[in-house]
Amino acid sequence: MISASTKLFALYKNTIIRRAMTSSASEFLINDPKYSFLKELGLKGTNFGVFDGVWKGSGQVVRSICPSNGKVIAEVTQGNLQDYESCVEATTAAWNTWADLPAPRRGEVVRQIGDALRNKLVPLGKLVSVEMGKILPEGIGEVQEYIDICDYAVGLSRSLSGAILPSERPGHVLLEKWNPLGPIGVISAFNFPIAVYGWNSAIAMVCGDTVLWKSAESTPLIVADVLQKNNLPGAVAALCCGGADIGKSMAADKRIKLLSFTGSTEVGQQVGVEVQKRFGKHLLELGGNNALIVADDANLNMVVQATLFACVGTAGQRCTTTRRLILHKKVYQEVLDRLKKAYEQVKNRIGDALEENTLIGPLHSKQSLQKYQDTIANIHKQGGTIEFGGKVLDRPGYFVEPTIVTGLQHNNVLVHSECFAPIVYILQADSVQEAISWNNEVPQGLSSSLFTQSMENIFEWIGPKGSDCGIVNVNIPTSGAEIGGAFGEKRQPEEAVNLAVTRGSSI
Length: 507
Known about the structure:
By secondary structure, this protein is α/β, with parallel strands linked by helices. The chain has 2 domains: 7-159 and 177-285, Aldehyde Dehydrogenase, Chain A, domain 1 (3-Layer(aba) Sandwich); 290-496, Aldehyde Dehydrogenase, Chain A, domain 2 (3-Layer(aba) Sandwich). It has helices spanning 37-40, 81-98, 103-119, 121-132, 136-157, 195-206, 224-229, 244-252, 265-277, 300-312, 332-346, 366-381, 432-440, 455-462, and strands at 46-48, 50-51, 55-56, 61-65, 72-77, 163-165, 174-176, 184-187, 211-214, 237-240, 258-262, 281-285, 290-294, 322-328, 385-388, 403-406, 423-429, 447-451, 471-474, 504-506. The strands form 4 sheets. It has an 8-stranded mixed beta sheet with strand order 15-16-17-14-13-18-19-20, with helices on both faces. It has a 7-stranded mixed beta sheet with strand order 3-2-10-9-8-11-12, sandwiched between helices. The chain is globular, with a radius of gyration of 23 Å. Residues 59-487 form the Aldehyde dehydrogenase domain. Keywords: Coiled coil, NAD, Oxidoreductase.
């Protein structure tokens, strides 16, 4: 299963069930010379989706679809509940070894993982692009995020500190010491298949936790080779690809001390409730519905450039994509006109995520495509105006036109929900204060941005009555987040929760 030169990258798989497909293995993209990097990463036509120290899988065989052309990449044999049980038992046993290592020693292992990722940066980036659909610079950038968090975690491994506090009792010392939780679970989403796992696993590992990853609709990446070279149990980083039954088991399992979930708000709420039933810990990164506000004194050249990528980058499939563009009435028409021209300029650069000229790749799946079509139909029913786009492209793959919508009220049900596609609703506000209130009125709240030249506006925006989102930006777009700061907190804990409750501001 694992090639001699690339054991670390033995399984990287995005699974979408296609029971009716008749493609033979010879037609899989993994056997196409254009995609030779897949075999370089140790992939085969059919791959195991479970790792507890040994590669295996007893569940359903599913096929990975390339969203740029609709073709099968390869197959993976998923895990069933028996496989899940073996993974939990193995990662629990591995914790007894892992937790005994000094934190700097654990950091050294994570450093080696980062170096191994560096050695395969480009082929892994291509794999993200071919499976998820994001353009190649973004695919490579996502792998780099995992590398960066490994570097961050290495430093953290030598700076995990406690405290010495005054004791009320004579002759006593009060010590505060942090200990690892134990086995933790990670359920990641399709849109950031490597980065989300990296953010969770690198930090968890240096803290002394073992990790069980359910990569439903995602891309498993196992660090088996590095662990083996250090004579450590492979189940320090276990994997169980599977369906909803695996996720439900993780949420209900008392042996999983913390469960990190990235995905839809609807499913995330169910996960949070199930984990809370057993008084477990959860870490949820869910809905964004992010707003970008443009004040009447904003630099409009900066606004248009920033807004373009924030709205259409990753085909609108980022948690931090701009969904609502709230424009001051004095600049509304100019920004709208200039943004439509900018969209027109990138329309002919929609295409295969691996191609150099591509700026906008496909949606991830047929389900995403259908949701886009349903949303466009509902926009028309609600009386909205399609200023640009609104169509599915007639070509192989799951491509749509980036879409600009006007004519809907700020409190419309469509404006308060997320389609997770390149659709932006443009709203007209009378003042920055009104725009801030509209920013805060939605139940989601991950990222937000204000473009202005006014220091008064800036301090109102980042103050206690300003944006209530986890990330509060000034004169930069909503998309993206830095690894060194907390993000995700909002007034509704089930929407977006982080271990830290501090809001991060970028100016």
